[in-house]
Amino acid sequence: MTDARDTAADTSLRTTGGAPPDDGGPSADGAPIPLLEPREGIPPVIADESALAEVIAAFAAGSGPVAVDAERASGYRYGQRAYLVQLRREGAGSALIDPVACPDLSGLGEALADAEWVLHAATQDLPCLREIGMVPTRLFDTELAGRLAGYPRVGLGAMVENVLGFILEKGHSAVDWSTRPLPEPWLRYATLDVELLVDLRNALEKELDRQGKLEWALQEFDAIASAPPPEPRKDPWRRTSGMHKVRRRRQLAVVRELWQARDRIARRRDVSPGKVLSDAAIVEAALALPGSVHALAALNGFGHRMGRRQLEQWQAAVDRAKALPESELPQQGQPVLGPPPPRAWADKDPVAAQRLSAARAGVTALAEKLNLPQENLITPDTVRRVCWEPPKPADADSVSAALTGHGARPWQVELVTPVLVEALSSARAQ
């Protein structure tokens, strides 16, 4: 594996302030080095099948892990599709692929099926990569590795700076990647995002091994790679920002109708729903229950910039909700699956509340001792479920089985089981 130090010679022509020091990390005064240019320059954007075939052949012939990244147009376009895919592999260099012009990348995915994919925050990119036929069988997530290793800041820029000693320019992360043609500064930024990803992976692997956490990380990566695609969210309109203000069922129906109308328009126009109508405007209309277009136009979010036709379509959605019979109005809140909110435990089951308090304290102490985030040691939802309905008997075997049943990985089960057994026992003894 390539050590981060081995990149020093390659980076000497693409940093400011002259050549980097011999170790390839921070400069002689300890300052990190800005990374300004990809080592082989910006590759051409692949936008046709013949060029794609060449890239597939080159990456299939490459060696070692393959760095993978994807850029979306969140806040600009409907959905979370990929608008640029970046890759880098030893022996193949870097590649930029336009998945709009080349929407089927299953051939590339198959060519890389045996390789380990290196991604940063893999769960963010895997859904859009899956849509274009790219599904890893093995992966290494540098963000998750950073969390397990105890780094306080795990964004890609912070990790590259703190681990490798280079500064990545991150100014284009939130631009509209559906723009065509993509500007050269954006392409440079996208290429640099995968430039040192494998180097970062190698350095983090060594650090995790040094801390005795490498096996934990490998189990986590396997769980991500083998996880099925997420189920579509039920009643997604309930996630409208500001919903806590909406308390009556008729008002909930207005939120639902406006959200669904907005979603249909956004999908048809391929724009972000928020650009069609804001969440704040939806909630405002639900609370006011306007009876006319004139009343609707007076509300925040439905101002003078909105034409008569637009106002009429929103008022029609409000009117549909107002005309629904009581039996068709949405219920206040969704059916609760699993434990109630922790704030209600003291009233519903004081002993369960004691179990949860003891379990939380134990998990927090263990996470601090291991120098990793509490939610990576074990998910709060898993702790709540075990404490609400503890196994009987609450011994090590039963608690281990319960944790496994809730999806905990073997390393988590081994570490957390003694903490939960003690918490369940202490609460029972009180």
Automatic annotation (TrEMBL):
Q: Which residue ranges have biased composition labelled Low complexity? A: 17-34
Task: Supply the SMART domains for this chain.
Answer: 35EXOc, HRDC
Segments passing through the bilayer: none
Fetch the SUPFAM superfamilies from UniProt.
Answer: HRDC-like (SSF47819), Ribonuclease H-like (SSF53098)
Gene3D superfamilies, alphabetized: HRDC domain (1.10.150.80), Ribonuclease H-like superfamily/Ribonuclease H (3.30.420.10)
Domain HRDC per the UniProt entry, residue ranges:
248-328
Tell me, what's a Pfam family for it? DNA_pol_A_exo1
Q: Which PROSITE patterns match?
A: HRDC (PS50967)
Return the annotated region ranges for Disordered: 1-40
Which residues does UniProt call coiled coil? none
From the Swiss-Prot or TrEMBL record, give the protein name.
Answer: HRDC domain-containing protein
